[in-house]
Design goal:
Methylamine Dehydrogenase, Chain H; 1 helix; 5-stranded antiparallel beta sheet; 389 residues; mainly beta
Length: 389
């Protein structure tokens, strides 16, 4: 059992999420912190009142639908969106996206539901406005595809369009042309202007032209010889860079390394990797459970935004912060690994959200709940220098 390890951060608050500590995606709006749950606990969504950072209070909590998990949250324009996806069962499950009104941020009221069919919705990207961008596995497809849902009337969401890699639509007669041991599916895509940057799992990074939302088209694809399970593709506006994470999906030292790549897209028809962020130093590979890259803070409106500082989760290596002042030579400038939660082999830091006030929120996917961090003076000054104004 390892104790707290920190470089640049101070723990200011913690929540065990009412005993349902399997925290996944999280997002703060005002004094409300919204947290999705991985699923083993049976809980779906938790809302914490974080007006007192040192003592977060449980404001509301509701379970996931039977045989489903609801591990993702998105908050914008007075709406809360959560996913419904099959979880570890072949019994009846819920498949789609729930829409909640946040007139009372601590007591959401469900006003709509979009049914995806199939296995359900995995990841949602919603920064406000008319459209939500999500990954889902509808009936007839091998795995997740990218879908755009129209929320002009939030009480009646409707599909606007869909895109998939050829070979996924088996019900339409398509035949996969990728290696049998691989899966080419969309984890999610980040949107910047008329481009979307999608993680195609074992297919790497795909750049999509979404000038016509009704018919997204491929600009280019970049794959890797080592790694895979491509997760997040985060564009850095104004720098012609996209930061791409894999997701570690095996425990300990098993499997290939799962990395954070810096990709040059100045010629978007020929993207190229210019650097790999340094792997955390230490014995993490031997600690057990997952070790490797996973999520990034996604530079949402209303949060801390930077095209230079990168906040990434690394499972048992916790939170890592990289400075991309020189994109060819990323430098780690901060890190935080909490003390290993009780009855857990190692920390499993899953998601990160950074506020405009520089407070950092992270989750543990097994049983650790939510941790609230404050940067120390030097890191705080670096964050101020690197912030987008």
């Amino acid at each position: 059992m390892h104790g707290e390890e920190t470089a640049g951060f101070r723990l200011v608050g913690h929540s065990a999420l009412g005993g349902y500590g399997d925290g996944m995606q999280l997002m703060r709006s005002g004094d409300a912190l919204y947290v999705g749950h991985f699923g083993p606990s049976g809980m779906g969504t938790t809302i914490l009142d974080v007006s007192d950072l040192s003592a977060p209070q449980l404001a509301r909590q509701w379970p996931a639908p039977p045989n489903s998990h609801s591990h993702k949250v998105q908050v914008a324009d007075g709406l809360l969106l959560t996913n419904h996806e099959r979880f570890r069962s072949d019994d009846p499950w819920s498949a789609g996206m729930a829409v909640y009104d946040l007139s009372d941020p601590f007591d959401p009221r469900q006003i709509g539901f979009w049914e995806s069919t199939g296995i359900g919705v995995h990841r949602i990207v919603y920064e406000g406005g008319r459209y939500a961008y999500l990954s889902a596995t509808p009936e007839g497809f091998t795995d997740r595809i990218w879908m755009i849902v129209d929320l002009e009337d939030p009480s009646r969401p409707v599909e606007a369009s869909r895109w998939w890699w050829p070979g996924q639509w088996t019900a339409g007669g398509e035949v996969p042309d990728w290696p049998p041991a691989e899966s080419w599916n969309t984890h999610h895509a980040m949107v910047s202007g008329d481009r979307a940057y999608a993680g195609l799992w074992d297919g790497g990074l795909v750049i999509l032209d979404i000038t016509d939302l009704a018919e997204p088209s491929v600009v280019s694809r970049l794959g890797w010889d080592l790694g895979g399970e491509t997760h997040t593709c985060l564009p850095l506006p104004g720098r012609d860079l996209v930061v791409v994470t894999d997701e570690a999906t095996t425990d300990g030292c098993d499997g290939p390394p799962h990395m954070i790549r810096v990709v040059d897209v100045s010629d978007e028809t020929r993207p190229r990797v210019v650097a790999i962020c340094p792997e955390p130093a230490g014995d993490f590979c031997d600690r057990g459970l997952r070790f490797g890259a996973h999520c990034l803070h996604e530079n949402r409106p209303g949060s801390y935004r930077s095209t230079r500082l990168l906040f990434a989760t690394y499972f048992n290596a916790g939170l890592r912060v990289y400075d991309l002042a020189d994109p060819a030579s990323p430098v780690e400038v901060g890190s935080y690994v909490p003390a290993c939660p009780a009855d857990q082999q190692a920390a499993q830091i899953n998601d990160v959200w950074v506020g405009e006030d520089h407070l950092v929120y992270i989750t543990d996917r097994v049983n650790g709940g939510v941790y609230i961090l404050e940067p120390d003076g030097p890191l705080d000054a670096r964050m101020m220098e690197a912030a987008l104004l």
